[in-house]
Known about the structure:
The chain has 5 helices and no strands. The chain has helices at residues 18-41, 52-82, 89-122, 127-163, 174-183. The mean pLDDT is 84. The protein is mainly alpha-helical. The protein has one domain (18-183). The protein starts with 17 loop residues before the first helix and ends with a helix.
Amino acid sequence: xxxxxxxxxxxxxxxxxxxxxxxxxxxxxxxxxxxxxxxxxxxxxxxxxxxxxxxxxxxxxxxxxxxxxxxxxxxxxxxxxxxxxxxxxxxxxxxxxxxxxxxxxxxxxxxxxxxxxxxxxxxxxxxxxxxxxxxxxxxxxxxxxxxxxxxxxxxxxxxxxxxxxxxxxxxxxxxxxxxxxxxxxx
Length: 186
């Protein structure tokens, strides 16, 4: 008697989510920064090739950034991916944006400056340093755009509540203020 093997259906939702790709990018950036520090930047400490303050700043920012990504930013980004069906869309958006913005403030902003400074002062010395710069600038762009869009989203909501059609009768509408200013009544 022959036994038939069950045919498995292909996974329908097995594609990576954007949040997973962002977490992988941040993790890869942290690992590349660590390797660059160990191989290239740390040996420059007492050689005079780069100042000790630059080497120390690089060490501090990649260490704090990697720790923030692993312990705070990564879980905040991964949380909506795993438990998204149990969360409201607003909570998913806020958690992911908070994780990305936190990584931007703590790591990407300073590391982008340090990486660009390294290229401007010393030039393109190693290909691995160029890869580190590319990944850092990519993380910076993602974080900056997320921060900018989050800020404009929040500000437009505040303006709509205060001056838009959602405002109560106790507030002045912008159109009335502008009309009164043109008529000279203010």
